[in-house]
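Researcher: First entry.
Model:
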Amino acid sequence: MPTMHDDSLHTRAKAMRGAMTPAEAALWRILRTEPLKQWHFRRQVAFPPRYIADFCSHKARLIIEADGEAHVLGHAADAARDRWFAGQGYRLMRFENRHILTERDAIFASLCDLVARAPHLA
């Protein structure tokens, strides 16, 4: 995503929260169940000056991305974005939309395992 002014980035994130894809909505339902709910995931989180994360738990230092067809090929922009988030201290997990919609139990299990290894903040 291109660099944006902070206000427009937050405005875009807010608009995206109101227009979730079916895969994002399914992933949001997963993230709102126990034990994942305790990690306080938020959706469409702005990270000025450049990026919006699909889902983020600041507590777990974890970003979850729901990737459509365009991301499956692993674009250089995704790699740069992933490095930027890592530089901010976040781990990043990507799930393909089709897997979110068809393998919800496996996605849930993967996420539970991942947050179980998250650093516990005081």
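Researcher: Second entry.
Model:
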Amino acid sequence: MNAPGDAGDPIETLAALVAIDSVNPAYGGPGEAGVAAFVRGFFARHGVDSFAQPVLPGRDNVIAVVPGRDRSRRVVLEAHMDTVSAAGMAIPPFEPTIREGRLHGRGSCDTKGGLAAMMHALVDLRADPSPPPCDAWLAAVIDEEHEFRGVSAVCRSLAAEWACVAEPTGLRIVTATKGVLRFRIAVSGRAAHSSRPHQGVNAVVHAARLVTAIDALHAGLAAAPLHPLLGPATGCVSMIAGGVQINIVPDACGIWVDRRLLPGESPAAVLDDYRRLIDAEVARDPTFQATVEPPLLVDEPLFTPTDAAVVRLAGEAARAAGLPADPIGVPYGSDASKLSRHGIPSIVLGPDSIEQAHSATESVDCGQVRTARLLYADMIRRFA
């Protein structure tokens, strides 16, 4: 597989993307408008049609299309344009620098490396003497790092044969990802003067008992049947907060839980597990009061069968490139689960490692970015 040179080196494109601050507004940044304008300009220069898909004020997805021989069918490459905060980074976040074959900067790995590779793959398909077998779309979306509103807008308006989502997987083919359920448990007590604690009900103490019970529940998840690609479900008490003043018996305490779901697990059934823990505490102590609040976030797991066309095509392209072709699972989520839930069989495939994502010294392997460009285009060419 030799990439046509029409669009140049994707690392130049990646550097330009990293130089644009696109920190999600939820984390104090300007959003994706600068990157969206760059992506549209790139495609305009290389003869690929694109359009803006409005999602939120000043925040548009960008959809690029290379027409195929069969215009009634389409496949989708998808990558997000926003990044997490650059606060606390140990390197200049928006000054892309290449050292020892790696490009450094915020978003370089998550996921501007994959986005650059996909942009160049579409230009390569456009430059081919023969059109691709079906329409090839690139969806560059907003808000993946916060509420997934970009991919949700794509799903509302799109039908496709399959999708490939760019997140860092080390160029491995990911067909299974854990879902996530995040929620808060509100523990209630009764305030009193701290010199007379017996006159109150200490919500912090009750919450501490509940946290111990939740921790035991999470430890027990490892003993449940394991998923062949994902292993056990997991859970974490990630925050706890209560009390207003040192000399007042606290009347309220909050417990925040992050629970990672396996394919086949129902978020509603999982929440019931925590409600049963509360019922057990109430049975032991009638002064105990707690409520599982509506979820802050629900993201379903991803599981794409190995006989799906997108898995087969990715495997063929990977073998042709001398890469591992066997599917794997990862514990983190992505836009792929939303596309899959919409009825579009999806995989996750992108350059470098999730360990680089969100890190203080984020970087991406330039060689993997270049290889990803070839893989994305080759997958689409093979789709007969």
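Model: Note on the second entry: Confidence is low (pLDDT under 50) at residues 1-5.
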